[in-house]
Every structure is written in C-alpha cells, then in structure tokens.
Design brief:
- The chain is an alpha/beta fold and about 325 residues long.
- Helices cover about 40% and strands about 15% of the residues.
- Helix 9 links the parallel strand 6 and strand 7.
- Helix 7 packs parallel to helix 11.
- It is globular.
- About 50% of the residues are buried.
C-alpha cells in the first residue's frame, strides 16, 4: 500500500529550521525593527498576537525597553509609543489595517508580512517582507515562528539574549531535532491537552493550544505555568496531558502526578540527554502533534473547519 501523501501543513512545518536561519541572517537589513530604549507595542491577531506576546516578554527581559503586546482589536490607541510593530501574514487582516491607518502620522509603524502585494505595505511606514516563509496552509506555522525568529535576532544584534534564552542559531539546531524526533506517546494518546509557559514562552503555549484547536479540533487550553494550580488543575486526570514549554516551576510536577495527569516538561533530545530544546523548537513538536491528531481523526489539517487564511471584515 502506498504511503499517505504528506499534508502541505506538515511539509511547511519541516522547513522551519532553514527559515529561522534565513531570518537571523536578514535581521540586520530588516527595516525599522525596534531599537534599544524605544517604548514599543507589538500587535497582531490570532497566532500573530501570540508571537507578539512572546517577543514583548523577550525584549523586556533583554533590557531593551518597555514593550507591550495587544490584539489589534484591543489596542489602546491613546497610549504613547515610539514604535508599533504589527505582525500579519496575509497583510489583509481588517483589524490590523484599521489600527495602522489610525496610527499613521502619529507613531512610526513597522509591519512583518508574507505578501508584498497586500494593503499593509501601503498602510505601515516600514515593512519587512518574509515572502520566503509564506504558507499555502490556512493554519500558520512557519511564518509565525520565522517572524519571531527575525525579532529575536534583532534583539541579539543589540546585545546577548536574556539569561536562559538561546541565540536563534542554536534554536534552529534544536528545530532540526524537533521536526524528526518521535512525538511523545502520552501526547498522541491523550484526550485533552493543556499547554503552559512562563515569561516569553507563555505566548508559545497559547499558540500551541491554538494549533491543536485549529488543525485537530482538539480540547486544549493554555495558561501561565504558575497559574495552573489556581483552578485549571481541576480537570487534570489520567489520559490528560500538561505540556510545559520552558522551565518547570518547583513542585508542579508532583502536584500534577498526585491528581493523575501526565506532565511533558522534559524536552531533552531523546536518547542524548544533552540539552533541552529551545521552547520555540518545542512548539514545532506541538504543531506536528496537531497535524498527527487531525490526520488520525480523518480531518484535513490544510483545510480546517470554519477557518480562512485571513479575516477580512465587510
């Protein structure tokens, strides 16, 4: 019997290591990325908003300036910023375009997009086009992480990464492992998944849960890791997984085990034990899990229910 054809989403997921390396190489020429000391807001919708949250936390942890992240529809337009960065794969998302138009002439704006022939290139003051990381799949994977890799590399050009955060080049090495290593059996067999993160990895946890909902229609949730014991742990039980991206809070492992949940918190490379995966690389494993679960249920990860590539409001 012939092997099943690989989905477009799975193929795009596998290209992320190369995309991140290219993003790092091009970060020096990317127009108008935030400079140290600027007060910055980062915005987007859906996946892009979660990448904005991760970058905002990283930038503040690196000591490069106050950085906020907002969904474009919830942006506090009355606040003063030195720069606003918008992430939009399609370049057509209504809320992002509306916000950029409102800010035009008031504050410098920079957009990261995958398509140079879309309205965002005319609405933002500066545009960084990552068309080589664009996707055919409705579900975002490589563009989102590549945009974050570009922003991470931009931070590295002004200083060392925050303590405990790897350079993008090392993250790309980890990504090469994440695209091929076996998925955790407990995650494949679970009935429910909760993703946790701390600091910059909380945005990644939100994104991991979103991928599972989008591609697989799965029951997933996401929380700051230290908040998990403040209510969400109530649903933990055998057959349900808690997947931590990043560092493990003290005592959490025992609390989850006591109620019968399965904790996936050790992203050490299987068989080596040498180092933990960069959390952005660990997100790749969650993306792959979402595709695997979708295919196992007979769903098409390239064409998820109720979703379109861009939300354009009439």
């Amino acid at each position: 019997m012939a092997a099943a054809e690989q989905s477009r989403t799975a193929a795009e997921i596998a290209t992320q290591p190369g995309c991140w390396r290219r993003a790092a190489a091009e970060s020096g020429s990317a127009g108008a990325l935030p400079r140290p000391g600027e007060r910055v807001a980062v915005t987007g919708c859906g996946t892009s908003w979660f990448m904005a949250q991760s970058y905002a936390a990283l930038r503040e942890a690196a000591g490069q300036g106050e950085t906020d992240a907002f969904a474009a529809s919830e942006f506090p337009a009355g606040r003063a910023y030195d720069r606003v960065v918008a992430i939009t794969r399609s370049g057509t998302t209504s809320e992002v375009l509306g916000l950029l138009a409102h800010l035009r002439g008031r504050v410098p704006t920079t957009a990261l997009t995958a398509d140079p022939a879309t309205p965002v290139t005319e609405t933002a003051d500066h545009t960084a086009v990552l068309d080589w990381a664009d996707e055919e799949s409705v579900v975002q994977t490589r563009f989102a992480t590549t945009a974050l890799a570009l922003l991470r590399a931009g931070l590295e050009r002004h200083g060392a990464p925050p303590a405990g955060v790897k350079p993008v080049g090392q993250a790309a090495v980890d990504a090469e492992l994440a695209v091929v290593q076996p998925l955790p059996p407990a995650a494949l067999d679970a009935e429910q998944w909760t993703f946790l993160g701390r600091g910059w990895t909380y945005g990644l946890a939100l994104e991991a849960a979103l991928k599972m909902r989008e591609a697989a229609g799965a029951w997933t949730e996401a929380y700051p890791a230290m908040e998990y014991r403040h209510g969400p742990i109530a649903i933990a039980r055998p057959g349900r997984v808690v997947w931590l991206l990043g560092s493990l809070p003290e005592g959490l492992s025992g609390d989850i085990a006591q109620v019968g949940g399965a904790l996936l918190a050790d992203s050490d490379c299987p068989g080596t034990g040498e180092r933990a995966l960069d959390p952005m690389a660990d997100l790749i494993r969650a993306q792959r899990l979402a595709v695997a679960l979708a295919e196992a249920s007979g769903a098409d990860p390239d064409r998820p229910r109720n979703l379109t590539r861009s939300v354009v409001l009439g």
